[in-house]
Amino acid sequence: PFLRLLEAQLQDERREHEEEIEALKNEVDAMREELEKQQQAFLQTLQLSPEAQVEFGLQQEITRLTNENLDLKELLEKLEKNEKKLKKQLKIYMKRVQDFEASQATVPAERRRHERNMQVAVQRKEKDFQGMLEYYKEDEPLLIRNLIT
Question: What residue ranges carry the coiled-coil annotation (predicted)?
Answer without folding.
Answer: 3-103
